Amino acid sequence: MTDPLPHLDYDAFARDLDAVRAELGATPSADDLAHFQKLARWGRLCTTVGYTTGLLAPNPLSAAMISLGMTARWTIVAHHVTHRGLERAPGAPKSFSRKHFAQGWRRWIDWPEWMHPAAWDHEHNHLHHARTGDPGDPDLVEAHFADVRAARLPRALKLAAVGFYALTWKATYYAPNTLSLLRRAERRRAEGHTADPDAVNTDVPVLRALDPRTDDGRAYWTRCALPYMAYRYVAIPALAAPLGPWAVFSTWANSVMAEVISSVHTFAIIATNHCGDDLYRFDRAPRDRAEFYARQVLGSTNFPTGGDVRDFLYGFLNYQIEHHLWPDLSPAQYQRAAPRVRAVCEKHGVPYVQEPVRRRVTRMLDVMSGARSMLRGFVGAEFSGEVFEDQFLIAD
What's the pLDDT score for residue 200? Predict the structure, then answer.
């Protein structure tokens, strides 16, 4: 295990990044809020167009529009709101507050998805962001695919397994995995345990989490799968009933196609964010803020950036490096941050990975199938035994 950045002055690197953060402003501006609201309207418009045109007949264009609306609601709206990226903006509505967004019955208005909002918030905002790329990261792709990587099978069969995963991953991975991790945290709190990132076991047996004979399985079906399927495949098609059975069937069929498209789309723009033979994984938690910064850059990748349309299609996940440095920014702030962060990385000799999505998918498939492996390394001085924490990562 070696230090990939033996030349780096960590304190100077952190100071330069802190200066970028200061330039971006302590809070989102009114213009940043207006920009976010425009993106949210685009997503709603996609959904409206998809379902309106989908009344006529099952077709891939209507399904694609529904899918794009679903994806935008997750990766742009829910993602930034639950990270508190908009609630401090002047004039931000209550619905853009993390404490109100998708809570209770508002889940079906703000963010109807397979994942339970509270479970995704815990798994993603608390665990993944604080422990990116180390053993405490619940989204470490290489670790999740250890069995597939080690299997003595032809590459084609391994890729077929990955393909099934890509088609179903929200239902078969994200929803049961996030809910199981939330339930573990709730049980630990009920038993009086204090928050300890190193005590969290992020290894969730997926089949057990899906099995209705287990407590976690029953919770998944009653809190995630059945309510979502009733919403997406019963309630929404039923709204077309006044137009006749064909309209109901067309709406249902387009909803099913949209689910598949959305699953593949989000798999390509999310699972690739921290996976590739040019990205690092680590053997422990970060020691301090400077080390945290270096790790977020070394363990993350961007897609091409710039322009609201392109960024919208990527779900603003093409700013993954900047997002992992500062999760609590608005989409417009990420657009301004990217060239500044890249310049700081070039100044200090820190690799800043940015490639088209097709190339990142290829790298990810190589890692998942075992053809290639991620880089290993520690960052910074020897571990002091303290776990780095930051209020914008773990605050309740």
Answer: 55
